[in-house]
Write a structure and sequence with these properties.
CATH superfamily: Aldolase class I
Bound molecules: flavin mononucleotide
CATH topology: TIM Barrel
Number of domains: 1
CATH architecture: Alpha-Beta Barrel
Order of helices and strands: EEEHEEEHEHEHHEHEEEEEHEHEHH
Helix content: 25-40%
CATH class: Alpha Beta
Number of helices: 10
Length: 314
Amino acid sequence: MEKLSIKNPSNLRTDFLGVKFPNPVVLASGILGMSASSMASVVRNGAGGVTTKSTNLEGQDGHPGPKVITYESGMLNCYGLTNAGFWHEKKEIAKFKKRLPQNPLIFSIFGFSLKEFQAIAQKVDQTRADFIEINISCPNVQSEHGRPFGCVPGMPQKVIKAVKKLTKKPIIVKLSPNVVDIVEIAREVESAGAHAISAINTLGPGMVINLETRCPVLSAKAGGMSGPAIRPLAVKMIYDIYENVKIPLIGIGGVTTGQDALEMIMAGAQLVEIGSGVYYRGISVFKRVCNEMQEWMRKQGVKSIKEIIGAAHD
Ligand SMILES: Cc1cc2nc3c(=O)[nH]c(=O)nc-3n(C[C@H](O)[C@H](O)[C@H](O)COP(=O)(O)O)c2cc1C
């Protein structure tokens, strides 16, 4: 029978920008990150840390349903950055931290202009979040708001500089795969003073058409692609970024098994996030992934997960 508690957790312990994580498997933004109770159940199910749903100052409704569809090897979503706003998230972060002070929390923020980014950034130090993640990469609001800042060279540094002067929290910048050269953007992000990079956000947007209705299935017609279909792309992007910047990386995209997480770590990620994997394997995906990683480590004689960060590089 599958073990659902993490045995010998010490070999998975790690740290990121000086903050301790019980293990490197973290909840990605957008999935179960809107309330303290859902984030706490993710941790009870094995996650080392959590990322909140991306939040702006006032909150927004996002798109109507249908917002999610699965296809053969992935998912499309067009949530459109639905969130309840800063004041709600601040309370949820406080409740989460009261219950689980040992589990780091990444507060994901977004805006559609530099002013909007600044409006939320100047509030984040009022929260108990350990890090801010700047989401400059959501592809499923571009029909209303234009290309995400993460896809326009020159814009990431403007956002980072605007946010950095308003907060003391470490800044993680979440990159988009929808660019000609992700390394160019990663270098820009590093030289603008970001402390870390997370990659990747969803790919596309893509579209699925219903043959009966002859219409796109999603309400917004198109949505960001996630899940196993995008994993090799995410691994390659982490690999390339690792070769070209010095700041630490979080690998995201299609991770559903321990093997997938290990691949991402060998490509150069210090932490690995899981989003769509929750849909594929349920909330216990975090424990399962940790157990599978440990099983591999035991067979290979790897004593600490930190030993294999970047192991795939020459
Ligand atoms: C339903 C859904 C909602 C998402 N919402 C957000 C979000 O609010 N902010 C963000 O930065 N990424 C968001 N993402 C992207 C994920 O955090 C992640 O980068 C992407 O899905 C790739 O990882 P995965 O294949 O493990 O899902 C969302 C993804 C999904 C599937």
